[in-house]
């Protein structure tokens, strides 16, 4: 490895600057999920840092679930796993009692002005053009979830051009493959409400029937907001489990 000068604000501790540098390289695609990170000794030599400084930086990124240590192999950029996370809350079972993966059907996909709550979540201007998508999830042809998804431009311009059959049920691999945008983490907020006229029609339930609402903001490795999503699912299908010690 050729030597390199550590970038960033000189007022910050060196371990924080190193963590920021590695995080930025991952966000820019210079390091990809699954890539192995140089050893702590190599990084210390490359940046002319003490081994303990490097160890602190790596520990931060492991705690943030950006990196993961694999015993006997080394440290790697972690593969994010978020597309199936909705089904921590909603489980759909077939007649045989086995879990079913809902199919996806895109109802709308177009450019629209970003409303205030979306603009705030994505850190874009209110009214700025953004990609809006309505997606329906079905089990045995029965609607079970409806999603509103917003993506900022120009990061996701290519998403508008993709044929629907090429999108499939998992969006985050598509964001990576077609738009070069990798989701590293997400924050979710759960509430409940009556379905209302619009969503009861889509979900084929009564307007007064309760639905669980899950708002999600997905972020890149550098904490840039990539996606705002609101999912509504049937309350009777909702499951929540927490272990508190």
Helix share, percent: 10-25%
> Considering the protein shown, what is the CATH homologous superfamily of the largest domain?
Chorismate lyase-like
- Pairing-aware structural class of the strands and helices? alpha+beta
Biggest β-sheet, characterized?
A: 6 strands, antiparallel
Strand order of the largest sheet: 4-5-6-9-8-7
The proportion of strand residues reads 25-35%
**Overall pLDDT metric:** 87
CATH C-level name of the largest domain: Alpha Beta
Write a structural description:
This protein has 245 residues and is α+β, with helices and mostly antiparallel strands. It has two domains: 14-77, Arc Repressor Mutant, subunit A (Orthogonal Bundle), CATH 1.10.10.10; 85-237, Chorismate lyase, CATH 3.40.1410. The chain is built from six helices and nine strands. Strand 8 and strand 9 (225-234) form a beta hairpin. Helix 1 packs across helix 3 and helix 2 (40-47) packs across helix 3 (51-63). The termini are far apart.
The gist of it:
By secondary structure, this protein is α+β, with helices and mostly antiparallel strands. The chain has helices at residues 14-27, 40-47, 51-63, 116-122, 172-179, 196-203; strands spanning 36-37, 67-70, 74-77, 103-113, 129-139, 142-152, 185-194, 210-219, 225-234. It folds into 2 domains: 14-77, Winged helix-like DNA-binding domain superfamily/Winged helix DNA-binding domain (Arc Repressor Mutant, subunit A); 85-237, Chorismate lyase-like (Chorismate lyase, 3-Layer(aba) Sandwich), CATH 3.40.1410.
